[in-house]
Every structure is written in structure tokens, then in C-alpha cells.
Amino acid sequence: MAPKLRILHIGDNIKYNHDVYARFSSEFEIIQPSAEEREREEFMRALKERRWGDFHAIFRPFWNTGGEMGRWDRELIPLLPKSVKVMASAGAGYDWADVDVFAEHGIIYCNGAAASSESVADMTIFLILSVFRNLAWSHQAAHSANPQAFADAHKNSPLTARNPRNHVLGIIGLGQIGYMIAQKAYAAFGMKIAYHDLFRKSAEQESRVGATYYKDLESLLANADCVVVATPFAGKTLLTLERFRQFKKGSRFINIARGSLVDEEALVQVLDEGHLAAAGLDVHANEPYVHPRLVKHPRVMAMSHNAGGTVDTHIGFERLAMENIEGFLLKGKALTPVNAHLLKSKSFL
């Protein structure tokens, strides 16, 4: 009988999908480093010493544990055994992992965006409604317990509030999450969907949400009444002052992707100038610290990076991380690979 493939499990024990884990742990040999071994210096020392020998996959079932070793970069990734072929992690974002470096070493990286799509899309719908209806103004006035502020919001915020219906929703990044946002906004609000992405959807997929593709980001920004950023962080700021100047005057902006995609000083400036009507932010550039002028702005609805934060998402993250490893190691195909297109050799797929 062939020995079982070995999985390095970083982070807490599983919490939800015990039946899936029973199957998973029967299929593979699980190695789980201690909390001390997950600290970067000790983790790297353990890899250099080959403390865990050869293993074939890295399993991180929760986004808020198992990340003690910090960034997965050119210092850390080359220390992994050559036997490693896949890393499956919870969470939609992967700005902490250099997926191109994983690819250089023949390692497929899988994220959990598919598990969080519903929750993130729901939060985006809330933020869309917020920026069209001036809900930040109303919310802040009510919580001030100031009768003058309440009366002012009650009387004057409707004068610039609009229904989302028939407005153009421009989505930057029409992946798993972006597409579900499009589905909900199209079905619930009757919005016109426009998008910019490196990869165009099929005609059938576009038709389902009435989407128009814009090859050039500038054209999308100029035509959208509300722009949603739903693309991963690729190492540089995407929304600069120059980019914000390309937005349609009076349009709205929502970020549910990563705060590092946005120049927050530039966003404050275009809001103050009135070039942008409102902004909805779930993510921030320097979390857990927020830009004080931005979050207190009367036309900004700000959250604490909770768009994907539901029990349903956590259950899905945990299950999907296991299923990605099973799919790749046992069936030859991961469910949600991020960097497959970067792998140079077909033999890795």
C-alpha cells in the first residue's frame, strides 16, 4: 500500500466541516505545526531543517489564523520542499502571498473567493444603496443624537439621493465575486452592468447580467455612475488621483477588494471637490487603522472589512480549502486556482 500524501496544516483546528475533515484526514497524513513553529523565524528554521520532511500541500483553513509567518515571498517560498504542489487557503484576497513566486516553483495557489462571494456581494449591495441614497449622512446624523443634525439629514439628504435603477454599475474585476455582484445588482436594482477585466466573459455570461465589456479602464470610469473595485491587489495602487479624475463627475465609488488599491488622500480630495458624490468602503489601506478624514466624511459609508464576514463564509472557506487539495492531489484539478495561468509547465496542472 502506497504511503499517504502529506499535508502541512497551518492555523487552528477545523471548526465546522467535521465530516469533510474526517474524509480529508483519512486520505492524507496531516502535519500540524505548533503555534510557536508558525512564527516566521521559527517556521523558516523548521523548513531549512526539513523538520517535517517532504509534504505535498499546505492547508490554511481560516483567514485569521495560520498567517503568523507573514508574507509568503521569495525569502520563504524557496524553502518549501520540492514535493509541495498546492497551497489552499481561506480568504478571497491574497495580497500577502506572491502567487507568481509560487508559480515559479510549480505550486498552485488556491483561494476561497468562491466561498465568500455571496457575503461580499450582499455587502456590496448595501454599499451601492448607501452611496446612491446618502445613507452615511443619515446614519451619522441619527447617531449624533443631535436634533438639528437629524432634521437637516431628514430634510436635505433626499435632495441628492437617487434610486440605483437604470444607472450604470461599473465593476473592475468580474471574477467570482464581481460576477455575483453583477447578478444581484442587475436582478434586484435593475442596474446596467459594465465591466473591465483582463479576461472577457463569454457572450452567454455577459447576457445573463446584461453586461457591457470595456477593454480600457478609462472608458469604464468615464461611463459608470458607480464603480466597484473587485479585483485582487497586484502590487501597486490602482485608483490614483489621476484615475479618480477619469471618473464621471458626480459618480460614486465602492471598494470591497483591498484598501491598498486606493490612494486614500486622493479619494478624500475628489470627494471634497465634489467630483465624486459618495464612497462606500469595506477595506482600508492601513488596517486596522483608518484614514480619519475619510471615515468621518459625511458622504462615506465605512465598514471594518466585514464584507465576507459571515459564519456561512467561514464554513465555506474551511470546506473549500480541503476540497481544493483533494481535487488537485487526488483528481488532478484544483477547484479555485489563482495562478494556474502563470505556471510555465503544463505538467504542473
TrEMBL record:
The keyword Nuclease does not apply. Residues 126-307 form the D-isomer specific 2-hydroxyacid dehydrogenase NAD-binding domain. The keyword Oxidoreductase applies. GO terms for molecular function: glyoxylate reductase (NADPH) activity; hydroxypyruvate reductase [NAD(P)H] activity; NAD binding. Coiled coil: none annotated. Residues 71-339 form the D-isomer specific 2-hydroxyacid dehydrogenase catalytic domain. Belongs to the D-isomer specific 2-hydroxyacid dehydrogenase family. This is D-mandelate dehydrogenase. It comes from Aspergillus caelatus. The lineage of its organism: Eukaryota, Fungi, Dikarya, Ascomycota, Pezizomycotina.
